[in-house]
Amino acid sequence: MEREEHARAIFETNLTGALNTLFPAIEQMRQQKPDKNGHRGRICVMSSVASFVSYPGTPSYSASKAAIDRFVVASAPSLEKQGISLTSVCCGFVKTPMVRANRFPMPGLVSTEEAVRRILRGTLRGQRRIMFPFWLGLGARLTDLLPPRLAERYYCRQPSAQPGGMPDY
């Protein structure tokens, strides 16, 4: 199990930090004049493909990303009526300095440039949720439909679920 201080720090960053950015941005956009199409602005919030799973290797990461994804997707319809577009970005592994510490395989690893292209394209289309790579997100969502003990059999065999498999920040 994760240490309490580690779990709290992850939630503070991934959920509280995101909300501390999101609410002021929404308030600022509400005060802006809409353009000729009624749009006041677009906001992207970073979640993760991990939000779709109850992964034993990263319980606080998965749970905090699930919370922000659900909040963004659920809030989007009411904000859309005010001319504000909200998008949750559920990406897999992106080649950034943060993932360099990972000591396990990272299927579907994409470059930062490719991630930016996908995020911009989806945001400009007004997608509620951008998920990539699609196959990884779909697999995660389908696996999460399994009974927990059955899913655990798969997850607990993964290298990142082994002792020392995940960085302990």
TrEMBL record:
Keywords carried by this UniProt record: Oxidoreductase
Keyword Oxidoreductase: yes
Gene Ontology molecular function, alphabetical: oxidoreductase activity
Source species, domain of life: Bacteria
GO cellular component term, pick one: membrane
Coiled coil: none
Pfam families the record matches: adh_short (PF00106)
InterPro entries linked to this entry: NAD(P)-bd_dom_sf, SDR_fam
Family: Belongs to the short-chain dehydrogenases/reductases (SDR) family.
Protein name: Dehydrogenase
Species in which this protein is naturally found: Gluconobacter cerinus
